[in-house]
Amino acid sequence: MPVLAPKKTGKSHASRSRERGKTSIYTMITSGHSMAEQSLKCKVKRLELILFTTQLSVMLDSGVILSDALDSISEQAKEGAFKTVITGVNTSVKNGDSFSNALAGYPRVFGPMFVSMVRASEASGKMSEMLHVLAGYLEFEFDIRKRIRGALAYPLMMALIAVVATSLLIFFVLPRFMKIYESRGAALPRLTQILIDISNLFRNFQFLTIMLTIAVLVAVVIYKWSKTITGRRVIDYVKIHTPIIGAMFVDMIIARSMKIVATMISAGVSLLETVEVVHDATKNYYFQQLWSWVDEKIRNGYQLTEAVQIYPRNDLIESSVLQMLKAGEKSGNIGKVSNKISLFYEKKLEGAIVSSTKILEPLLLICIGSVIGIIAIALLLPVFRISSIIAQ
Questions:
Q1: Which DSSP symbol is given to 243?
Q2: 259 to each of 29, 134, 174, 246, 342, how far by Cα in Å?
Q3: Can you give the pTM of this predicted structure?
Q4: CATH class entry, domain 18-140
Q5: Residue closest to 38 by CA, chosen among 78, 88, 73, 100
Q6: In a 10 Å sphere around its CB, with 0-12 CB exposed, 13-18 middle and 19+ buried, how is residue 132 labelled?
Q7: What is the pLDDT of residues 87-120, one digit of tens each?
Q8: Helix axes 205-226, 190-202, angle to 10 degrees
């Protein structure tokens, strides 16, 4: 069934935003459960959420009623933040609250997409199928993060080894050679002297205190600045325009956005609600501006692809993606098309991660080898003259 855009209402975007703010069920429920949310001091692990969603889907599909399923899952859960969440949700359901409303009380655990899809399943009566789809999306996100971390693990490990090796050579090996030369009154080679000066500088407590204080102040200033509009614009611009890494950021954002569209549209959630969830799930300033524009234009009667095409900075999404989405709109299969786009960008992202890692590994080895080589030369230069110095 094709996803139709709503007719033009004639209301301003600001007034519609105020209406949405007044009538948003999610917002009202969230504020009503703020105390429950504040009681959680720990983050819930993604694997726990995936397991909960999958387990609940299987139990509901087997004919177990919701409250009994939540009872069973709560009893099996280990002590911790997630057990507290499940118990709270179960209590709300038993007190007559709907499942979606109970979930909305924990926005740090169950995001807008999760709550919206559960609410849609309550209306359609297909909660087990919807939870199965949700579990698939959560696994998709978890898999992408796992791949990125796995790809970065080796370069980070090599960088850590380089730092440790360099520190050992500068702070422990070089000072020993310095004592030998000082006892003989010999002048150190220039390169060795420079490294020893650096070693002495970093062993100076006052210097380290000053540097640490400056570093903390700079970090705080940058953190505060990054929360401003200007800071977000600059940082997010750098993220998506940095060579190699920028393309990976864009691919990841599009893959995630299209996966959300595919999941929610296929589940029967309205296009407007889907766009709002995509906007909230997108952490990049420029893509959030894009989806805000799309939201406004859809409310004014435009189709999804039309809204993206007339956006002033429509270079964020490739024309081939828009063509596929347009075909999906015409055929009424925008959910399936979005899923295919998501799979394509997922594979593209995976390939980019692998290729960039292959490029990064030799570069890291060259840098590490150069640093250690320079230090080794600085160590060997005095060694060549040790015998003559001792003889004196």
A1: T
A2: 26, 11, 55, 20, 5
A3: 0.68
A4: mainly alpha
A5: 88
A6: middle
A7: 999 999 999 889 989 998 888 888 877 888 788 7
A8: 70
Pick from 26, 263, 280: nearest CA to 132: 263
Q: Residue with structure tokens 């029967």?
A: 268
339 Cβ neighbours under 8 A, 6+ residues apart: 258, 259, 262, 263, 266
Q: State the DSSP H helix or E strand holding residue 108, giving kind and residue range, or none if neither.
A: none
Q: Which amino acid is at 206?
A: Q
Domain ranges of the chain: 1-17+159-392, 18-140
The pLDDT tens digits for 315-347 are 888 888 889 999 998 888 888 899 899 889 888
pLDDT digits (tens, 9 = 90+) for 173-193: 777 767 766 666 666 778 878
Which residues lie closer than 8 Å to 267 by C-beta, 6 or more apart? 117, 120, 121, 130, 133
Question: CA-CA distance, 29 to 186, in Å (whole number)?
Answer: 77
What is the rounded CA–CA span in Å between residue 55 and residue 73? 8
- CA angle 316/320/321 to nearest 5° reads 60
Residue 18 CA to residue 337 CA, distance in Å, equals 33
Instruction: Return all residues near 336 (Cβ < 8 A) that are at least 6 apart.
Output: 262, 266, 328
Burial of 335 (0-12, 13-18, 19+ CB in 10 A): buried
Tell me the chain's radius of gyration from C-alpha atoms.
Answer: 29
Q: Write out the two tokens for 214.
A: 């400056």
pLDDT at 295: 92
Q: What is the pLDDT averaged over residues 200-225? A: 90
